[in-house]
């Protein structure tokens, strides 16, 4: 039986499909388009998303094809401020620049997409032949983008607004002697712009607000210069020219009964900040393991409520941040060009603020509130080291490998900071279907996790810390698992 209908084979639907496939869940993945999309919207893959791609097992191809950008620059009046991600506490301290069409192509490998298959309503699909298929699925996930049919079928409010000003977007070839280390935002009294270097040499994306008429290489060259990009650059060719308007909205709820919304179907934001696709992929990664666990009978349906509880606040936060950034740019352009420069100079002026900004942009700083599935005993509240609900950070291990290499399992991973054969055996014997036990060694990880010899961390399948404790007590671990897994599975085991 097919358990899940995934509507939409964009980045969100594809990552969800990987997560279900990894766990042997039967699904159908449909998309209304004739075939793969050639036009790319998102260009930047953030550090936290690269961690997701590592877990799924597709990262090497991304790293082969993408361009690592460690620096972002802000340019005003020939003065440049540079923000570097090099000190980010993550294995990938950069943004990987890769067109969305290539991201989707890599993710599509090994997945079957039913193209030209459109969801009409929650019980009807239109097939490539034009015939209608009456369907009924235990679970439906709407990954069908900003104009989501699933969201419409649910009559779910999509609150927010649209910015009236259009933005011009062009993919261009250039002549330049300037050595670009990453994207540039530039601004003058005439307006602002964004230049992103593609992985291909001398190929860029440029975004300029409020313009329709820049349709020749000469006009674009002049506009980029006029808007404050003072380094030598001449546009020689335009391959794509389009315009877009910024929407900022989120769905009132991300779940209604057996139907979920994820990605752009659930939230849309300004592309400034490069968060949309990344937040969407994180949605799919949060939902995938939970849905699989419930379908397999491992967890009660209430586990699925934590999807909205964890992801809706993130969507709101991203909306706030990207709206702030866009407003700052548009206000500066209209009223006070140097304002944008001063604000970024302030933000980059202290190590603490730079760290915070890096964590926000890369999304590694996202953590989930304490709730039944992110839990620790009161006894452990003063324990330093990453807390329950936070992303488990990577760290080198004594044998030269990295912690993240041990966290690729689709199961929970129980990290023990010393060997205890009896405890390990007790956990493995009863819970090996859901939990993998790993003993980790090394001074670096001990320090990073502020761990003692009897410390344990239970890492969720999406890399977040579910539970931690300073003692190896089976009954304590079980009492946490009772909050997640089906009590019937555990009742006789505690
Ligand atoms: C100009 C621009 C630049 C951007 N730049 C960035 C960036 O740098 N970084 C970033 O992170 N994000 C960026 N974004 C946002 C990013 O593109 C989206 O967040 C991302 O595509 C969302 O993925 P998704 O899978 O949720 O939706 P989509 O990519 O929109 O995919 C939805 C899919 O659902 C299918 N579909 C729709 N309706 C149906 C139906 N009824 N039945 C079946 N299939 C259906 C569609 O054909 C489509 O393939 C940008 C967006 C824009 C507009």
Walkthrough of the structure:
The protein has helices at residues 11-21, 47-56, 59-65, 100-108, 149-153, 217-226, 276-295, 305-335, 338-347, 351-362, 403-406, 421-431, 443-448, 474-481, 487-490; strands at residues 4-7, 27-30, 44-45, 67-69, 71-76, 79-84, 95-97, 118-121, 124-126, 132-134, 139-142, 158-175, 184-188, 191-197, 203-209, 234-251, 255-256, 259-261, 267-268, 375-376, 412-416, 435-439, 456-459, 465-469. With 494 residues, the protein is α+β, with helices and mostly antiparallel strands. It has three domains: 4-43 and 99-157 and 252-335, FAD/NAD(P)-binding domain (3-Layer(bba) Sandwich); 161-246, 2-Layer Sandwich (D-Amino Acid Oxidase, Chain A, domain 2); 375-493, Glutaredoxin (3-Layer(aba) Sandwich), CATH 3.40.30. The strands form five sheets. The chain has an eight-stranded mixed β-sheet. The chain is globular. Helices cover 32% and strands 25% of the residues. Helix 1 runs parallel beside helix 4 (100-108), helix 1 packs parallel to helix 7 and helix 7 (276-295) packs antiparallel against helix 8. It has 15 helices and 24 strands. A hairpin with a 2-residue loop joins strand 8 and strand 9. Flavin-adenine dinucleotide (FAD) binds at residues 7-13, 30-33, 41-44, 100, 118-119, 143-145, 149, 169, 244, 263-264, 271, 274-278, 280.
């Amino acid at each position: 039986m097919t358990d899940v209908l995934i509507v939409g084979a964009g980045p969100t639907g594809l990552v969800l499909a990987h997560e279900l496939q990894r766990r042997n869940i039967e699904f159908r993945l449909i998309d209304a388009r004739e075939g793969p999309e050639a036009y790319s919207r998102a260009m930047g893959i953030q550090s936290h998303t690269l961690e997701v791609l590592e877990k799924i097992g597709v990262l090497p191809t991304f790293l082969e094809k993408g361009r690592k950008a460690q620096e972002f620059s802000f340019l005003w009046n020939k003065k440049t401020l540079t923000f570097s991600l090099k000190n980010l506490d993550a294995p990938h301290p950069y943004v990987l620049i890769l067109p969305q069409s290539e991201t989707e192509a890599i993710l599509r490998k090994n997945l079957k997409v039913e193209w030209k298959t459109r969801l009409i309503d929650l019980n009807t699909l239109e097939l490539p032949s034009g015939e209608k298929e009456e369907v009924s699925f235990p679970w439906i996930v709407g990954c069908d983008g900003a104009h989501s049919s699933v969201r419409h079928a649910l009559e779910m409010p999509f609150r927010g607004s649209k910015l009236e000003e259009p933005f011009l977007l062009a993919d261009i070839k250039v002549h330049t002697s300037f050595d670009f280390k990453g994207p540039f935002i530039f601004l003058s009294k005439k307006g602002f712009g964004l230049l992103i270097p593609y992985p291909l040499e001398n190929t860029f994306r440029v975004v300029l607000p409020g313009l329709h008429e820049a349709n020749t290489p000469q006009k674009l060259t002049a506009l980029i210069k006029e808007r404050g990009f003072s380094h030598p650059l001449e546009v020689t060719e335009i391959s794509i020219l389009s315009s877009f308007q910024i929407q900022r909205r989120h769905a009132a709820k991300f779940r209604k009964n057996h139907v979920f919304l994820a990605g752009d179907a659930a939230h849309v934001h300004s592309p400034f900040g490069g968060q949309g696709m990344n937040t969407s992929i994180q949605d799919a990664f949060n939902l995938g393991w939970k849905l699989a666990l419930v379908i397999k009978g491992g967890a009660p349906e209430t586990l699925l409520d934590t999807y909205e509880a964890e992801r809706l606040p993130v969507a709101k936060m991203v909306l706030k941040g990207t709206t702030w950034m866009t407003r700052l740019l548009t206000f500066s352009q209209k009223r006070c060009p140097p304002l944008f420069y001063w604000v970024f100079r302030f933000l980059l002026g202290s190590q603490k603020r730079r760290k915070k900004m890096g964590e926000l942009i890369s999304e590694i700083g996202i953590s989930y509130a304490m709730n039944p599935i992110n839990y620790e005993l009161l006894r452990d509240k003063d324990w330093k080291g990453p807390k329950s609900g936070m992303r488990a950070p990577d760290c080198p291990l004594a044998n030269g490998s990295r912690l993240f290499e041990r966290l690729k399992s689709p199961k929970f991973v129980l990290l023990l900071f010393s060997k205890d054969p009896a405890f390990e055996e007790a956990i493995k014997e009863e819970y090996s279907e859901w939990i993998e036990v790993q003993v980790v060694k090394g001074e670096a990880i001990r320090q990073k996790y502020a761990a003692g010899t009897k410390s344990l961390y239970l890492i969720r399948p999406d890399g977040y810390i579910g539970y931690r404790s300073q003692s190896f007590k089976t009954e304590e671990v079980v009492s946490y698992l009772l909050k997640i897994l089906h009590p019937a599975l555990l009742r006789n085991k505690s």
